[in-house]
Amino acid sequence: MRYAPPIALLLALATTAAWANPHERLLANGLRVIVREDHRAPTVAHMVWYRAGSMDETSGRTGVAHVLEHMMFKGTPTAGPGEFNRRVAAAGGRDNAFTSRDYTAYFQQVPKQKLPEMMQLEADRMRHLSLDEKEFAQEIKVVMEERRLRTDDQPQALLYEKLNAVAFQVHPYRVPIIGWMTDLQNMTVTDARAWYEDWYAPNNAYVVVVGDVDHQEVFRLAEQHYGALPARTLPVRKPQDEPSQAGTRRLTVKAPADLPVVMMAYKVPVIRNVEQDVDPYALEMLAAVLAGHDAARLTRHLVREQRLAVSAGASYDSTARGPGIFHLHGAPTVGRSRAELEAGLRAELVRVQEQGVSAEELARAKAQLIASQIYKLDSIFAQAMEIGQLEAAGIPHTMNRRIIDKLQEVSSEQVQAVARKYFSDEALTVAELDPQPLPQTPRPRSPFVPRH
Amino acid sequence: MTPCKFLLGFCLLLCAQLVQAGPKIERWQTAAGTRVLFVEDHSLPIVDIQVDFAAGAAREPAGKEGVAGLTRSLIDLGADGMDETQIASRLADLGARLSGGVDLDRTSVTLRTLSMADKRAPAFELLRAILNGPTFPAEAFERERARSLAALREALTRPDAIASKTFWAAMYPAHPYGRQATPESVAALLRADILAFHSANYGARSATVAIVGDLSRAEAEALAERLSSGLPAASADTGLPVPQLPVGGEQRIAHPAAQAHLLIGLPALKRGDPDFFPLAVGNYSLGGGGFVSRLVKEVRDKRGLAYSVHSYFLPLQQLGPFQIGLQTRKGQADEALRLTRSVLAAFLEQGPSEAELQAAKQNLIGSFPLRLDSNRKILENVAMIAFYDLPLDYLDRYPENIERVTVAEIQAAFARRLPVEHLVTVVVAGD
Fold it and tell me: Does B99 contact chain A (CB < 8 Å)?
């Protein structure tokens, strides 16, 4: 019979093998290179992360971080428009990019022997982007189509956008990543160029490489391709701290839909000091107890037992550059009102405030956490994302193991304490989707017309 | 890069792939008649299992549309004396994850668990209980029917869902692939319909099991026996009717959305058909190859008409569709439609250029390792091979099958599979 390793050994695998492995080097120009070797398959994930996201934008230019992300595929003097995608495709690779509030990141997944070429391409566009006016004029239309697709015609995305705009009045998290439509309509290539000049510098970026590589070889390649790019002085980042809320805020959004939706947003802290913080870890556990699995409290009580909701959930991310939000959300069952669902969601918070959470529930949340860390090892992309996102939030990737430890240490009392401390009406914003019937029942305007 | 180096590089790349090929797949059948495919891999302490049944939406009796999805959503809500809370809590305690879903051909139940004995054994036992003894509690049935009705009513307000449902109905007017769940059909479902669908379609002989990860062959065999031995004794898969090609034409549906949703297509390709390879290579150049396809270049890059535009073949047990889809600002839908049709017509007339052909092959062959670089991806591939009964060397031979495709074969396959007079077009919110 095969030897079955005990749990402690498995945890060591998930923690030591994976987390002691990342190797790191700082180039003279300020670019950090982080490498995790994973030799299971002959592939590699290469990512470049810039510490510039929508939270760094200014009024009238919202969406520019994301527009620049699109323009990064529109060519340099040595690799013209579309050439980046063409070369990645020819390398047998996949590539894309994503913009968040906190960062903008670019990635390629390629067979391992193609890593040098990917670095050469990324280094080229880190410094030499063309930003052609005609290309911009086409691409800004594409971005407006993206906004229509993902926000304007998605009632729940629209609700979330407007919720943030009300919950935050000072901090730039009030602004949608894709930008307001009016800003997109009035954006120019000059805006994109200013953004690029401000933020796209090696000292504002880090490279994450995970896969079948030798870390020393990756450092050598990084030096070769990125090493000559000059560091630049970065703009001053103003904190723009959100003042305390001092009272519940409410908003309603009307949109064509059938399901009403309630979203509640409570202001909560995020991790600022991995060792000293307690509350963000307790909030993560609270989210897991409320909504971490199919029999977690919100689904069990509101959907299954009370039949108050067709869906109910909670979400919280303890890592972010900006302020934290703990969301509760759901859609009421036919015949039940949004107010009833809101009361039901609040009642779940009160239960935790008054009675805490059971040891069994907490143990369950921790078991899921450990398993998810091991499952993450099955994907080099997920491993690279984890490193990149921690770093984006200002947390060294080497602290990942400590974060897991701290989550494991959370007690029932600490979960109850954060439920009491942060979930008050003073820090709450409530957004409701008020569904509007379509102007007419959708039916073919014309009968089926044969076409030859 | 000089042409010489280019060719050399390409050959090296290709040879490297041929040597690597796919994972080693073992295959057997359980006593109950269930086909099993297994890939042994001890590099991570994880086991992934996918059980597929020929219980897709196409198996729904007429008038019972929606029963396949509802049956799947109820399967883990009561089994072997456990209620839904106990099942979900035990899975969570083990760190195990149950997932899956329903498409036109298949119902899938997927389990991911840690592989140490004290985790995997109870997780396997839960999976066995769910597959062999689901109780479909009446109370859960009522509730899940109401939830599925709410989700359907919501979907029917969305332009993308309206377009998709209309499109499938138009492509398959007299075939199960074209039948759609409606609020009426879902509301009329009874618990007896669930029981009947389950016992008719979740049988051992139409089931396939794919297992990937940290088990020995003997352990995998024992697991597959346990999972399949108590499945319903349903009759074996009786197959689906052959779809007729639809009468080509266009449907327009008004909607207040900011963007029009366009779909163009027709029934085109079965799983296991040798035309798969010329169509896959050709479609890469037409609209499948991410950012480098003709559709993306013309519709998105040159004119800024859409954020997303794509084309693909979806091979199914019977002829699955070829589909082109895009979304564009209301008011320019006709312009986008004209342009898309002209791109398709030019491609059908000339096929890809030699350069496009080489680029397609380079990507499809070069990216082959990326399709298999995790247990999860291997599971998806192996489950597909098992369910559609494809050759065991399907993955091993994939690169050479791509490599040998010619422009003439692509042109011939597209001409055979895309008779344009049968193309169906749906435009929602186009005016």
Answer: no
